[in-house]
């Protein structure tokens, strides 16, 4: 019955590639095979069970019928939006132009609809989270990339300047999706000096036309360097307050609250009160999903009023950050034992191992029962889904395939 589909919608894979790999890994494990599944994108404990933050779930169980059942406002509860923004910038008194979205993905999709025309390109990093390309394609757009620095190397400012200027010349505008701090999939944030260099370039190119810098903040609560994350947020706030660049953020409760199934987040521009921008965002919400679930918004408002719950949540975030850090350290130690370079994780759920032929490497590792996600630049490894004790097996598998791929 595919004749009813228009031609351009008939050739998609049956499942998202990452989900397909995870399904294959689970099916092989179910037969009794020893499987190391590093494709998972959700936080698991050492027994392989999904981590659900107790502080959040206790608040969830307290929600009343009227905090769950009614429609939320189309653009979201203004108090929720303010509270979510203040989790990252506590000194701000307002969310600015903002709307609630179904997770961070919804925020990214709305940014495409409002800041680019069909056929244009959004700039992001290489490597990047794979669904960025899907989001762009579904909106009739594509990606342009500039390289994320490898471990121990500086930002390639020449490549970034060329990418920014090329897009500004070709399109008259730039939308930049920047997943920093806690970059997915490398697990490394920009250094302060690299971030300063990049923001200087953004300021310079903004003199030629409008630039929207959209910060993808999925993993900030899981970091080895909370002070560095706070400093980075301050640097982005300073750029936003200047007004030469429109600075916004994709915010999500999925990882921060382990509310993956709640599908709640926001697209917020805290330093912009433009009524036209707010009206455009609200219109996009109405024409796409109408409004978002009320319960996660109500939960965050309960959290904002409950100091004890906030302290419990902060403690849980610290614990799981330490677990991720231990897994990353174990992997770096195992890689060193195999004569490979350390990956130097600083935050997030993933690291990325460079490989010349990632697809071939992925296939060969699957033969050994080790599952990773191939990207154009290498293999994504989900620290969030592995144990520290898995590191030697993973490093040995990587050495066998990366050396010949």
Provide key terms for this protein.
405 residues; alpha/beta; Aspartate Aminotransferase, domain 1; Aspartate Aminotransferase, domain 2; 2 domains; 5-stranded mixed sheet; 12 strands; 44% helix
CATH superfamily of the largest domain: Type I PLP-dependent aspartate aminotransferase-like (Major domain)
Counting helices, strands and paired strands, the structural category is alpha/beta
Radius of gyration: 21 Å
Strand content: 5-15%
What kind of sheet is the major sheet? Answer: 5 strands, mixed
* CATH fold-level label of the largest domain: Aspartate Aminotransferase, domain 2
**CATH class term of the largest domain:** Alpha Beta
Q: Strands across the major sheet, in which order?
A: 2-8-7-6-5
Shape: globular
Distance between the termini: 40 Å
Provide structural commentary:
The protein is an alpha/beta fold. The chain folds into 2 domains: 2-52 and 311-402, Aspartate Aminotransferase, domain 1; 69-306, Aspartate Aminotransferase, domain 2, CATH 3.40.640. 44% of the residues lie in helices and 14% in strands. It is built from 13 helices and 12 strands. The chain has helices spanning 17-30, 54-62, 78-86, 103-115, 131-138, 157-171, 192-206, 226-242, 275-288, 294-305, 307-337, 358-367, 391-402, and strands spanning 36-37, 97-101, 121-126, 142-147, 174-178, 211-217, 246-252, 265-269, 350-354, 370-371, 373-375, 378-382. Strands 2-8-7-6-5 form a 5-stranded mixed sheet, sandwiched between helices. It has a 3-stranded antiparallel sheet with strand order 9-12-11. Helix 7 (192-206) links the parallel strand 5 (174-178) and strand 6 (211-217). Helix 3 crosses helix 10 (294-305), helix 6 runs parallel beside helix 7 (192-206) and helix 12 (358-367) crosses helix 13. The longest helix is centred in the C-terminal third of the chain and has 31 residues, at 307-337.
